[in-house]
Specification:
This protein is mainly alpha-helical and about 230 residues long. It has two domains: about 140 residues, no CATH class; about 80 residues. The protein contains eight helices and no strands. Helix 1 runs parallel beside helix 4, helix 1 packs across helix 7 and helix 3 packs across helix 4.
């Protein structure tokens, strides 16, 4: 159970880091364009962004491991008691053993997760045309997700989750069950992006019919132009 929850938190961290780095790349798009015009290579900018993600990921990994060890000392008694209630057995804990060999792979996994989630924005930001950024045209530079690809990925994750739960039943393995439940919960995060896009398109059609075109389009009016009552 703890392994499954930890894996789910790791997957949630991937989405949080991805959204954060994508937003930061958009906000620094003008700086990237200026560096490109001054002669900076795309590979150099990509490595700089990944290096930044690696430094932040290393700091976060060490903080996370230390915080996890601190929580383990406080919560190990509660976990052992809950396991005793579930399995009707006694799990006395006299000492908490935490070695370097156990914590090092966890730290490296956290750093790798940060690099993986940041690599998408680091790959995309230097490839944006610098002249388009410096012209400050009135268009959205935020990358648009492809709903079809995300739906296919969601279906694939559902299939993997079903396979994991099936193997848990056949092999009597908690590991496969944790893997399947993690994939199932993670699929919700993947399908949420297309659902939000579809909801926006749906409400964009319904709101003008319900409240009238003027009221529905009022938020999109130019902020520098005074508008009368709807």
């Amino acid at each position: 159970m703890l392994t499954g929850l930890s894996a789910l938190c790791l997957v949630a961290g991937v989405f949080i880091i991805y959204n954060t780095t994508s937003t930061a790349a958009v906000r620094r798009a003008t700086v990237m364009g200026e560096l490109r015009l001054m002669g900076a290579d795309q590979g150099v900018l990509f490595r700089l962004l990944l290096a930044e993600a690696g430094v932040l990921g290393t700091i976060g990994a060490f903080i996370g491991v230390g915080y996890g060890i601190l929580l383990a000392h406080f919560l190990v008694g509660m976990v052992s008691e809950s396991m005793g209630v579930i399995f009707q057995l006694s799990f006395p804990v006299q000492d908490l053993s935490l070695g370097f060999r156990q914590q090092a792979p966890i730290a490296f996994l956290g750093i790798g997760t940060a690099l993986f989630a940041s690599s998408f924005a680091a790959f995309r930001a230097p490839r944006t045309e610098p002249l388009d950024l410096l012209r400050k045209e009135s268009r959205n530079t935020t990358p648009r997700s492809r709903s079809a690809i995300l739906v296919v990925a969601w279906l694939g994750m559902l299939a993997v989750a079903a396979l994991g739960l099936f193997l848990q039943r056949e092999l009597k393995s908690f590991l496969w069950g944790n893997f399947g439940s993690t994939m199932w919960n993670s699929s919700v995060l993947v399908i949420a992006i297309p659902i939000v896009g579809w909801s926006v398109a749906l409400w964009a059609r319904l709101l003008p019919r319900i409240f009238g075109r003027k009221v529905a389009l009022q938020p999109t009016a130019s902020p520098g132009r005074a508008s009368g009552p709807a």
